[in-house]
Design brief:
heterodimer, A: mainly alpha, 4-stranded mixed beta sheet, globular, B: 507 residues, mainly alpha
Chain lengths: 522, 507
C-alpha cells in the first residue's frame, strides 16, 4: 500500500482522527434519542410497530437495541461507537482510494477534510443513518470501480445494497448509480443486467432477513399499516414553486455554508477539469463514478423533499474526495507563487473554509474539561439546539428528583432527548406526538396513544413544538391534544397540572384518588 | 500600451442588453440608506446646512450629490433610481472604453457588460444605490491609470482625483492606495516619489473641497461631534469570537448566495488557471485590489450585503475573464461534466433572483399592492407599507410640523406631501446614551417645534443605538422628554402596532 510508506501519512491520519475525536464530546441529538428510544423499547421486550412506532426501517432499531444493550443511555459511548465507525470508514477510504489509484495527495487531503466536513456539520447531524451509510457506500463504490468484477463482487454489492436499503429505503437508488457507472465503464449490457439482477436478488434477501423479526412475530401488517400512514409525510412539503425555491435555498446553504465555499469550488473544478481541452486526466472514469454517485445520492435527497443538512451529508464521501482532488490541482498551480500572494490566498481560503468552525468546535472539549459533566447537558451547546437540550435536561432533572415512577409519558414532537436523561427506561410508544395527534393519524395509533396516557402517572406536554411538516398544521402538541376532546377530557379529569418547566414543558401528575382507584381495581 | 481606444461596435448590442438588465432597478423602492441620503439632500437643497440642520455619519459628498439631484427632480425616488441607472450605464461605458485601451479581449468586455448588470441588480433589490456603487467610476479610473503607468503628472492628478472622490464617498475605500504602493514598489520601473506625493496631495485636496461648505459655514463642531459618535458606532460589534462567527456567517451568505457560487468559480478559474501572459499584471492587481477592498469590509465590521459591492469593479472583470476561459477551454457537449457544470450554473447562480427583478418591476407598474406586500412583511427593514401608511395618515392631517422618531430607515418622510425639515434620519443619534450633547440640543429644537410626533417602539437596533431599547423606550426613558410630551401632547393613535402618533394639544 502506497499510502503508509511516508512517515507524514501517519501524522496526517492522526490529525484526521484527532479532528474526528471532537465528536466524542457531542451531546445527544433528537434523532439519536429517537433511535435510542427504539432500541430501549426492543431491549425491554417491546415489539416494533406494536410498542414502538417510527419511520425508519426496522434494522435501525434492532441495531440500536444491540447498542443499547452495550451502552445503555451513556451518550459518550454511542459517540465513541460513531467515532470508531467513522475512523474505520476513513481507513477503508484510504485503502480504497489507494487501490483505485487516486492521487496520494488527494487521499491525504481527504484524510483530514472528511473528518473536518463531518465534524463541523455540528452534533445533530452526526451519527445518523446517512453517516452509517458511509462504510457500505465506499465499499460499494470500490466494487463498482473494479475493472474486472466477478459475480462474487456483485453478490457482495448486493449485501451492501441490502444494508443501505435497510438504513433508509431511498438508499436503494445506489443501484441506479451503479448501473450508470457501469455504462460509463463501457461494460456490456449483459454484464450490467446480470450484475444488477444478482444485486437486487441479494439485496431483497438481506432485506427479508432484516425484516424477519417482524415477519416471525406476525407484526408485518402493523408495519404495513404504519408504512402506509408514513406515506402521508412524503407528501410534505407540497411540490410547487415554493418547494423549488426552498430546495435551492437549502442546497445553497448546505454547499456554501455548511460544506464551505472553498471546498465546493475545489470539487466543481475537478468536475470541470474533466472536459477541459488539451487536459490529461488520470482516473477519468473513476472520477466520473464519483460524480455519478454524488449526483444520484443528491437526487435521492431531493426526491425525499426534506433538504435537511444531515440528509445531504450522504454525498460527503464523494464530494470530499472531489474537493480533495480539486485542491491538489489548485495547489499545483499556485505553489510557485510569491509567499505574500500565498499568504493572501490562505487568509481568504481559510475564511471560506470549515476551519473557523472547526476551531469553534474546540469549545466542546474545553468547556467540558473546564466546567465538568454538567456542561455536557447545559451550557455546552449554544444556539437553538443547545437551548432545547438544556430544557430537556431540566425536565428530566425535575422528574428524577421529585418522582419515583417510570410511568412518565412525554408528549412532544421534534426531539425526545430527555428520555436519555431519565434515571429509568422510557416505556411508551411514540418518539413523535404528531404521529397520533395530526389530523391524518389512523385510529389505531390514537388508541395506542390513549392507552399510553391511561397508563401514565406523569405527563410532560410541550407547548411550543410547532412543526408543519409533522403536524400538517401550525398546532403544538398541547393545542393538538386540546382539540381531541376525549383525550383532553381524560387528562383534565385524571391529572393535575404540577408545574411548567422552562416555559414550554407542562407537567401533569395523575390525581392520587385516581391512582388509588386504579390500584384498587387491580 | 494603448493601441486602439475606440470601443468595438459589436459591443453596442451588449450595451442594449445591459440596459434591459438594469432597467428594473428603476422600479426598486426606497431603501433605508437611500432614504437617509435623500433626507440629507432635501435639507441641503432647501437651504439647510450639513451638521447643523442634518446629521449623519457618512462623509459630506453623498449629501451634496443628493442635494444636486433633489434640486433638479425634487424628492422623487424614481428620479434617484434613474440617476443610479444612468450612473451604472456610464460606468459600463467607462469600463468598456478603458478595458479596450488596456487591450483586454472584446469577449471579456462583452461578458462584463452582461455579468456586471446581473450581479449588481440581483445583489439586493433595494440597497444597491449606495456610496459603494457611486465609487465604481473613480475606482476603475484609479486602477486604469495605475496599470497604464505613464508616470506623468496627468496620470497622478487623475489618480489623486479618483482616490479623493472614492474616499469622499467612503473613507475606507482609501485602502486602494495600498494597492498602488505595492504596484509602485514592485512594478513601476521609474519610481517618482514627487508624483506619488502629488497624487496623495490631490486626493487630500479633493477630500478637503468636499468638506469646504462645512468649514465655511462654521459647522465643523457638528462634524467633530458626528465623528465622536462615529467612533463609538465603529466599536460595535466588539471584536471577539462572537463577531468573528457572525461575520463568517454573513460572508458565507453574501458570497455563497448573493455573489453566487458561479461567479466565485469563474473568479477562481481566471485567478488560478487563466495564464494569458498579457493579462498577468492586470489580473494580479485586480485580485490584489479585490483582496484589499475585502479587507476593508472586514475592518468596518458591518457586513451588509451592499458593502461587498465595492469589490465589483475589479472582481467582475476577473469573473468575466473566467467566463471567457470556460467558453474557450471547456468542451460543452453531451457529457457528465457539462451536465453538472450547467446544472450548477443554473441552480447556484443568480438566474432565479434575476428573474424576480422583472416581477418587482412589473408589480411596481401594474400590481402595486403585490409590490408593497413584497416589501412589507416580518423580515427586518421590510416596512415600506407601514411607512407609506404613516405618511398617508400625516398627509391627511395637513400639518407640516411632523417629527418622525425612528431608527433604521425613515422612508415615511419621502411619502409626505411636503418637505420634511427635521434634523435626524435616525433617532438613535440623539436618543442613544452615547449621543453628543450638541445632538440632544439639536433634537430638542425639533421637539419644541413639532406639532405631530411619531415614535417607533419596535426599532431596537443595538448596532445603531449602542444600547438596548427602541426609540420609544429611550425617549420615555428621558425624564425631560417624557414630561414635555405629557404636558404638551396627547396620544392620537397607534399605527401598525408600533408607531405612536402624538399631537400637540394647543398648536
Amino acid at each position: 500500500m502506497k499510502y503508509f510508506q511516508n512517515k507524514y501519512d501517519y501524522l496526517i491520519i492522526t490529525l484526521g482522527i484527532m479532528i474526528l475525536s471532537l465528536t466524542l464530546f457531542f451531546p445527544v441529538s433528537s434523532d439519536m434519542a429517537t433511535f435510542i428510544q427504539g432500541g430501549m423499547i426492543l431491549k425491554n421486550g417491546g415489539a416494533l410497530y406494536v410498542d414502538y412506532f417510527d419511520v425508519k426501517p426496522p434494522f435501525v432499531y434492532y441495531f440500536f437495541e444491540f447498542l443499547f444493550t452495550m451502552f445503555g443511555k451513556n451518550i459518550t459511548l454511542y459517540r465513541a461507537f460513531d467515532f470508531v465507525y467513522q475512523s474505520i470508514f476513513l481507513l477503508s477510504s484510504i485503502y480504497i482510494f489507494d487501490k483505485l489509484g487516486f492521487s496520494r495527495n488527494a487521499t491525504r487531503i481527504f484524510t483530514v477534510l472528511m473528518p473536518m466536513a463531518y465534524t463541523t456539520l455540528s452534533f445533530p447531524h452526526t451519527f445518523q443513518v446517512e453517516s452509517l451509510l458511509f462504510l457500505p457506500l465506499i465499499w460499494y463504490y470500490y466494487l463498482s470501480s473494479k475493472s474486472h468484477s466477478s459475480k462474487f463482487d456483485s453478490l457482495i454489492k448486493g449485501v451492501l445494497l441490502g444494508i443501505a436499503i435497510n438504513l433508509k429505503y431511498t438508499f436503494g437508488i445506489l443501484l441506479l448509480a451503479d448501473i450508470l457507472y457501469l455504462f460509463i465503464q463501457k461494460k456490456s449490457i449483459k454484464t450490467i443486467i446480470t450484475n444488477s439482477l444478482i444485486q437486487l436478488a441479494i439485496a431483497l434477501s438481506v432485506t427479508l432477513v432484516l425484516f424477519s423479526p417482524i415477519l416471525i412475530s406476525g407484526n408485518f401488517h402493523s408495519f404495513f399499516d404504519f408504512f402506509n400512514y408514513m406515506k402521508e409525510y412524503t407528501n410534505y412539503p407540497a411540490i410547487g414553486f415554493g418547494w423549488v425555491q426552498s430546495t435551492i435555498g437549502y442546497a445553497t446553504s448546505f454547499f456554501t455554508g455548511h460544506y464551505s465555499i472553498v471546498l465546493l469550488l475545489a470539487a466543481i473544478y475537478t468536475i470541470f477539469r474533466l472536459e477541459v481541452k488539451d487536459q490529461k486526466n488520470e482516473n477519468e472514469t473513476k472520477t466520473k463514478g464519483l460524480i455519478i454517485f454524488l449526483m444520484i445520492l443528491f437526487i435521492s435527497v431531493v426526491i425525499e423533499r426534506k433538504m435537511l443538512i444531515y440528509h445531504q451529508q450522504r454525498i460527503l464521501p464523494f464530494l470530499v474526495l472531489l474537493s480533495s482532488m480539486g485542491l491538489v490541482f489548485i495547489y499545483n498551480e499556485i505553489r510557485n507563487y510569491m509567499k505574500s500572494t500565498l499568504v493572501m490566498i490562505i487568509i481568504v481560503a481559510t475564511i471560506f473554509s470549515p476551519i473557523p468552525r472547526l476551531f469553534n468546535m474546540l469549545n466542546y472539549p474545553i468547556k467540558i474539561m473546564s466546567q465538568g459533566g454538567r456542561a455536557f447537558y447545559s451550557t455546552l451547546i449554544e444556539g437553538a439546539e443547545g437551548q432545547i437540550i438544556k430544557k430537556h435536561y431540566a425536565v428530566a432533572d425535575y422528574i428524577n428528583n421529585t418522582t419515583n415512577t417510570d410511568k412518565v409519558l412525554l408528549i412532544n414532537t421534534g426531539g425526545n432527548e430527555m428520555i436519555c436523561y431519565f434515571k429509568f427506561d422510557y416505556i411508551y410508544s411514540f418518539p413523535q406526538s404528531a404521529f397520533y395527534l395530526n389530523e391524518k393519524a389512523p385510529e389505531y395509533l390514537k388508541q395506542k396513544a390513549f392507552e399510553n396516557i391511561k397508563d401514565a402517572e406523569i405527563i410532560v406536554l410541550q407547548n411550543n413544538d410547532q412543526s408543519h411538516i409533522m403536524f400538517f398544521n401550525d398546532d403544538t402538541s398541547l393545542s393538538s391534544i386540546q382539540k381531541n376532546l376525549v383525550i383532553w377530557d381524560y387528562i383534565k379529569t385524571n391529572f393535575t397540572q404540577d408545574t411548567i418547566i422552562e416555559e414550554n414543558f407542562i407537567l401533569y401528575k395523575r390525581n392520587t384518588s385516581n391512582l388509588d382507584k386504579s390500584e384498587n381495581s387491580k | 500600451m494603448i493601441l486602439d481606444s475606440r470601443i468595438d461596435k459589436s459591443l453596442i448590442k451588449y450595451f442594449i442588453v445591459a440596459i434591459v438588465i438594469l432597467l428594473p432597478t428603476i422600479a426598486f423602492p426606497i431603501s433605508s440608506d437611500l432614504s437617509v441620503f435623500m433626507h440629507g439632500g432635501s435639507i441641503i437643497a432647501n437651504g439647510g446646512e450639513l451638521f447643523h440642520d442634518f446629521y449623519d455619519i457618512k462623509p459630506p459628498l453623498i449629501y451634496y450629490l443628493f442635494a444636486g439631484i433633489n434640486s433638479i427632480f425634487g424628492d422623487n425616488i424614481v428620479a434617484f433610481r434613474l440617476f443610479d441607472f444612468l450612473y451604472q450605464m456610464t460606468f459600463l461605458i467607462t469600463v468598456a472604453y478603458l478595458l479596450t485601451k488596456l487591450e483586454i479581449r472584446t469577449k471579456v468586455i462583452k461578458a462584463f457588460l452582461i455579468i456586471f448588470p446581473i450581479s449588481y441588480t440581483i445583489l439586493n433589490y433595494r440597497d444597491i444605490f449606495q456610496t459603494e456603487s457611486l465609487s465604481f467610476i473613480p475606482l476603475i479610473l484609479y486602477f486604469y491609470y495605475m496599470i497604464r503607468n505613464e508616470n506623468s503628472y496627468k496620470q497622478h492628478i487623475i489618480m489623486g482625483l479618483s482616490l479623493g472622490v472614492a474616499i469622499a464617498f467612503k473613507y475606507t475605500l482609501g485602502i486602494i492606495f495600498i494597492g498602488y504602493l505595492v504596484y509602485f514598489f514592485t512594478e513601476a520601473t521609474n519610481r517618482n516619489y514627487a508624483k506619488l506625493a502629488l497624487q496623495l496631495s490631490v486626493a487630500v485636496l479633493v477630500l478637503l473641497i468636499t468638506f469646504l461648505p462645512i468649514l465655511l459655514s462654521g459647522n465643523i463642531g457638528g462634524f467633530i461631534d458626528t465623528n465622536i459618535y462615529l467612533a463609538e458606532y465603529a466599536k460595535y460589534p466588539p471584536i471577539g469570537v462572537e463577531l468573528a462567527k457572525q461575520m463568517l456567517e454573513i460572508l458565507m451568505h453574501n458570497f455563497g448566495t448573493l455573489v453566487s457560487v458561479s461567479s466565485l468559480f469563474l473568479f477562481l478559474l481566471a485567478a488560478v488557471f487563466c495564464k494569458e501572459e498579457k493579462y498577468r499584471v492586470i489580473k494580479k492587481y485586480l485580485i490584489l485590489f479585490c483582496f484589499l477592498l475585502f479587507l476593508s469590509v472586514l475592518l468596518e465590521r458591518k457586513i451588509n450585503m451592499y458593502h461587498i459591492t465595492r469589490l465589483f469593479p475589479y472582481f467582475l472583470i476577473v469573473v468575466s475573464m473566467g467566463f471567457i476561459y470556460v467558453m474557450d477551454r471547456f468542451r460543452f457537449g453531451r457529457n457528465l461534466s457539462t451536465l453538472v457544470i450547467v446544472t450548477m450554473f443554473v441552480i447556484l447562480s443568480p438566474v432565479f433572483r434575476f428573474a424576480n427583478t422583472y416581477k418587482i418591476a412589473y408589480d411596481r407598474v401594474f400590481n402595486y399592492e403585490s409590490y408593497l406586500a413584497y416589501y412589507t412583511n416580518h423580515k427586518p427593514f421590510n416596512i415600506l407599507g407601514q411607512h407609506i401608511a404613516i405618511a398617508d395618515y400625516i398627509n391627511k392631517k395637513g400639518d407640516k410640523k411632523f417629527l418622525f422618531l425612528n431608527t433604521g430607515g425613515n422612508q415615511a418622510v419621502h411619502y409626505l406631501n411636503f418637505d420634511y425639515k427635521y434634523k435626524f434620519p435616525h433617532s438613535a443619534f440623539h436618543l442613544s446614551p452615547k449621543a453628543p450633547l450638541s445632538y440632544k440640543k439639536a433634537f430638542e429644537e425639533d421637539l419644541h417645534d413639532a406639532n405631530i410626533i411619531a415614535i417607533d417602539n419596535s426599532d431596537d437596533i443595538f448596532m445603531i443605538f449602542l444600547s438596548e431599547g427602541s426609540s420609544y423606550d429611550l425617549f420615555f426613558g428621558e425624564k425631560n422628554y417624557k414630561e414635555y410630551l405629557d404636558e404638551n401632547f396627547t396620544l392620537d393613535t397607534i399605527l401598525s402596532d408600533r408607531y405612536f402618533i402624538y399631537e400637540r394639544i394647543n398648536k
